[in-house]
Amino acid sequence: MTATAAAIVSVDSLSVAYRSGGRDVPVVHDVSFDLRPGRTLALVGESGSGKSTVAATLLGHLRHGSRLTGGTVRVDGADVFALPARELRRLRGGTVALVGQNAGQALTPSMRIGRQIAEAGGDVPVVDLLAQVRLPRPAELARRYPHELSGGQQQRVALAMAIAARPKVLVLDEPTTGLDVVTQRGVLDLVGALRDELGLAAVLVSHDLGVVAHMADEVTVLRAGRIVEAAPTGRLFAASQDPYTKRLLASVPRLDDAGLAIVGEDGEREVRPRAVVAGDAPVAVSARDVTVDYGASRAVDGVSFEVRRGEVLALVGESGSGKSTLAWTLAGLRAPSGGTMTSESGDLARPARERPVSLRRRVQLVFQNADTSLNPRRSVGDAVRRPLRFFGTAGSRAEAAVRARKLMSDVRLDPALVSRLPAQLSGGQRQRIGIARALAGEPDVLIADEITTALDVSVQAEVLRLLDDLRRERRLACLFISHDLAVVRGIADRVVVLRHGVVVEEGPTEAVFASPGHPYTRLLMAAALEPEPASAPAPDAEPLVEEVPEWTDAAEPDDLWTDHGHGHRVRRWRPAAREGAS
Amino acid sequence: MLSFIARRVLAAVGTLFLSSILVFLAVQALPGDVATQVLGRDATPDAVAALREKLKLDQPAWERYADWMGGALHGDFGLSLVSGKAVGGEVGLYLGNSALIALVTVLFAVTGSLLLGILAGLYRDRWPDHLISTVSLVGMSVPEFVVATVLVLCFSIALPLFPAVVLYGPEASIGQLLPAVWLPALALAVVMAAYIIRMARTSVIDVMASEYVTTARLKGLSTWRVVTRHALPSALLPTLHVIALNVAWLAGGIAVVENVFNYPGIGKLMLSSVQNRDLPVIQAIALISAVVYVACNLAADLGAMALNPKLRTRGRTR
């Protein structure tokens, strides 16, 4: 690739390796691309593809132990890796600025927001910068510390810091990955607006093809440190050439999938029809008016639902909606402060340690982060064997060992992996162990708390398929917690939408997605980004608010619901007067 | 924030109260009472009874405790059984001398070891780190009296820069004591430094690998600014409590070193009081040690508050 005169960023045959055990391990191999001012290039790939490493080289940064093994990175005419230290510092922040993935950890905890932004240089007053990233009461906010801000606010502060010195290139490394859909949409809209306003060139690193489709002009797909495909966004999404790209695109769940998408080797996409839950399937869990309090604040407020054997019920909502609290309460990790919870085999209102073993093993929780919920010093086989022995589902040590291998093959893992430590497995493999561990007690009810959130799309597709297989084979009642509506659409039979601990809408998945009744559900759906580029040539950030009416809650104690039939009901609401916005 | 401080101070006062009871009870539990200690084995029962009455030993324990505490709060710890002088004044004199050593030690050990620890952390896995880590490990493994003896061999005998022993009594002036302070202080500092260096090194390494330090670097800030503004406040946090524990350790560690150098400090007084069974003095010293411990930990808690805004802003609404 030759650098056109206009290119502000020009990466040429870049190769990076890190040293491990006395050997050079290549992480980036022969990567080239150009970026012109005002354009956005997306680096797409799964974990380990080297996309973040490439992005960081634009700031002349390499991780501890990594080094440049070939090629050049030129930004605004300067060879980044040949710059003397002083020039490099001027480049960082001045010409190229970075917005990292996790603003909560990217801001120094002991410094006030205002000072951290001021430090980044530039002539724009801090208060103006904060106002520019649409933060309310900027003067007051500047005196706050990072921990006093919400995740979305922190990311906006990181953006303010990045644009402080009016750079020419913005490097966005997974800028919205930790945020929920609504907040993500807000931050992306802001990034798009700032980019256009300031005429920035942007490099966007993301594994989320929805985000990429929404933001980028060009896409470069990386796999294991190599470029597999590079194309303008429209062409890539419409007619990708490379089988890996095809598979990646096909793995992304869509809001209009009528079931779980099964992706073939060549990226062929086939939607598996939803499993039919028998009409006479017994109710596995029933919750009535469950209320959970954290001190004075109410996290879950009068939630009721039922899950039948073989059915997947999804709990959907933003962070802070109380969906995880509800899951933990059901698993017995938190005590409810009101309401009843029962299962086929006993009362679930009691905390786990007071439940009889026979009941405890029937309700099992799979955690979001398999890597932190498994003991790092015990083999994964051990993690599966322990509950087998503990719950008495395996009598002897030998039997437990046999059963553990069986469970591992049940979750489509090679039983030869039993003696591995969690750190020696991939993220998807670890999550399978998490599921195998939960299955060891032979549960009726499986609570899956954001189990695919931390996974790459192709791995997510595999784990979802496994879960779908398991509930068919074992007639598991599954409570599936997620903030990702597209994932929910594929796997769930019924959906419960939570907002601030209150159910605002519930019903069969098809009905809720076909005609969402509550404005909050519509807001969630509008905020979800589909892996399809906007039809307009320049992807405009459509303002979110106009799609969703302002509303207020209109539920009366004896008249909570508007019934749409077939179990689809919506909490009563009415359009709000302008100033009474929620 | 104020309630946090108030709670810490209250806890400190409570700890002191409990430890004063413990100290008092421990002394009570020693075999034989003060009267027999003073009069010796051959004393007549009458004489013992008379002394017991004079020392108010015939009163119930809680009354004597209240008496002692009441006095202690005003600096009156009773009379020494050996010299007959007021314990408060005598202990105060020795304490002052020890404070001189402690001050020098803390000043040099804390600043020095923090600097070395930070340096080691910043130059992780390179030669300054290896050097500092190895030397501090040696310092940690050798007991303080050995360090003290080696220092005497080097700096008073082979190279006569400092006096090996102090020839003055407790009433010596600061000017007289000052030359003698350096070697004991150095011996103590060597032992203390190792812990602080290792802790500072580890936390600096952790913090330097954090995302916010990387962000600060990529903002184009100078290394100096990144280290002082972004890394150090968080890196010092875990080190604070190690410093506090080490400073508190001085209260006991000083005894050994003072005896090596014949320095007229609290440690020396403690040893001679134990040998002479001078119970009121021992009691007073034990209480003072407790005060030092509690004060050090309180200072560390308040220091942590200064470095960690999360502790300061607790309770403020988002």
Automatic annotation (TrEMBL), chain A:
Record's keyword annotation contains Transport: yes
InterPro entries: AAA+_ATPase (IPR003593), ABC_transp_ATP-bind (IPR050319), ABC_transporter-like_ATP-bd (IPR003439), ABC_transporter-like_CS (IPR017871), Oligopep_ABC_C (IPR013563), P-loop_NTPase (IPR027417)
Compositionally skewed regions (Basic residues) per UniProt: 566-575
One BP annotation, GO: transmembrane transport
All residue ranges annotated as the ABC transporter domain in the record: 9-249, 285-525
Keyword Transport recorded: yes
Region listing for Disordered, in residue ranges: 556-582
Coiled-coil segments on the chain, per record: none
Keywords of this entry: ATP-binding, Nucleotide-binding, Transport
Protein's name in the database: ABC transporter ATP-binding protein
Protein source organism: Streptomyces sporangiiformans
Automatic annotation (TrEMBL), chain B:
Gene Ontology biological-process annotations: transmembrane transport
Any one of the GO CC terms: plasma membrane
Cellular location(s): Cell membrane
Membrane topology of the entry: Multi-pass membrane protein
Residue ranges of every copy of the ABC transmembrane type-1 domain listed in the record: 95-300
Keyword Transport applies: yes
Transmembrane segments: 99-124, 145-168, 180-197, 235-261, 281-308
SUPFAM superfamilies documented for this protein: MetI-like
CDD domains: TM_PBP2
Alphabetic keyword roster: Cell membrane, Membrane, Transmembrane, Transmembrane helix, Transport
Keyword Transmembrane among UniProt keywords: yes
Main localization of the protein described in the UniProt heading: membrane
Stated family: Belongs to the binding-protein-dependent transport system permease family.
Protein name: ABC transporter permease
Organism, as annotated: Streptomyces sporangiiformans
Upper taxonomic lineage: Bacteria, Bacillati, Actinomycetota, Actinomycetes, Kitasatosporales
